[in-house]
Amino acid sequence: MWLLAGLGLLVVEMATPGGLYFLFFAVAAFLVGLLSCMGVGPDWLLLLIFSVVATGSLLLFRGPLLRRLKSSGPQAHTVENIAGETATLSADLAAEGTGQAELRGTVWSVRNVSTQPMNKGQRCKVERVDGLTLIVRPE
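Given the sequence above, the corresponding structure tokens read:
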């Protein structure tokens, strides 16, 4: 029963968004399940071991584990560091006109600051960001 409880707790952990609470209870249930299979102690002792291991590991390891997962995850791209990247125009763009371009899989509003027009599919360099509009010029 302890092993099934541990498996159920792992399923609940995967189904809930990132709290990492049920993980420690699942590990404790697996540990107690293994002890139970080896014939260790009466039921009250197994329940005590489960309680101590689950709450102790939760208090000791949850915070550091969350920090490690957060620091090793993909870094968020911010609008400020888009300058210098290359976008691809979605449509023709007149000289000193506005239009749309794709960058990082997202369609952005762009403003051409050069005096030459650009064609659909042409690559352009992002000079800076003005609100949610990319200021671009031909590459």
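Residues 43-72 form the longest helix (30 residues). Try to locate this feature in the token string yourself.
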